[in-house]
Amino acid sequence: MDWGKKNRLSQLIQKDGHCMFMPIDHGYFQGPTTKLEKPGETVKPLLPYCDAIFVTRGVLRSCIDPVNTKPIILRVSGGTSMVGEDLANEEITTSIKEAVRLNASAVGLSVFIGSKYEKQTLMNLANLVNEAEDYGMPVMAVTAVGKELEKRDARYLALASRIAAELGATIVKTYWCENFDKVVNGCPVPVVMAGGPQTETEQEVFDFVYDGMQKGAIGINLGRNIWKHDYPIAMAKALRAIVHENATAKEAGQIFNAEKKR
């Protein structure tokens, strides 16, 4: 790995080997998501608690302060919407030159294993890695499942994560599941956990994040479970404690409750 790629990764993955990424890229297929209508305002108070933000170039340019921000993971796939025929029908929307121009620390895209567009999205990843290597740019592959949430089991996610790693992904973002160690142990590159839809209670989030960290994930990439929550800063502080301070799920709950009262 050359100097530039190592340097970019060091901005994302902290000295303890862990990371807390915050995605605000949901609008690229969902439009003005609730509480993300003005993404710059939503993310601003949360920046002190995350290590990087996952964002599209449009929102980055129009909503994120270039003077006071965190490292950027640039979303570079898209072309579909919630009202379209198939969320899996994605293509690459942004070049690596654009990512370098925007001073991104990594680029990220989705792959849809088992979908009608499996080959297309996997070739998106392979071609992106080919281009990214010329610039020392890390690539994060997101094992997306579209609307088919029943696919979130260890066998499927282990398959998807391993294929993404085999094609050259530097980091894999995938969902937590039961027997999550099977996913991590079968993936030769670092794994970060996605949040998915907002859960019913914050303790559910703390439980799965703690379990995933114990089973080998290096961190999280959670959005809605933080910025869509009624107490987003309390959620961010509690989750950061699990990721970077080895807090248990119970301790995270205590931190959340204490911050909630402030």
Task: Please describe what this structure looks like.
By secondary structure, the chain is of the alpha/beta class. It has one domain: TIM Barrel, CATH 3.20.20.70. The protein contains 12 helices and 10 strands. Helix 8 (180-185) links the parallel strand 8 and strand 9. The radius of gyration is 17 Å and the shape is globular. The model has no long low-confidence stretch (mean pLDDT 95).
Q: How would you briefly describe this protein structure?
A:
The protein has 12 helices and 10 strands. The protein is an alpha/beta fold. The chain has one domain: Aldolase class I (TIM Barrel, Alpha-Beta Barrel), CATH 3.20.20.70.
Provide key terms for this protein.
262 residues, alpha/beta, TIM Barrel, eight-stranded parallel β-barrel, two-stranded antiparallel ribbon, 12 helices, 42% helix, 15% strand
Write the topology of this structure.
Blueprint: H1 3-12, E1 19-23, H2 27-30, H3 39-43, E2 52-55, H4 57-63, E3 72-75, E4 77-78, E5 91-92, H5 96-101, E6 106-111, H6 118-133, E7 139-143, H7 154-166, E8 171-175, H8 180-185, E9 191-194, H9 202-214, E10 219-221, H10 224-227, H11 232-245, H12 249-260
Helix pairs in contact: 9-11, 9-12, 11-12
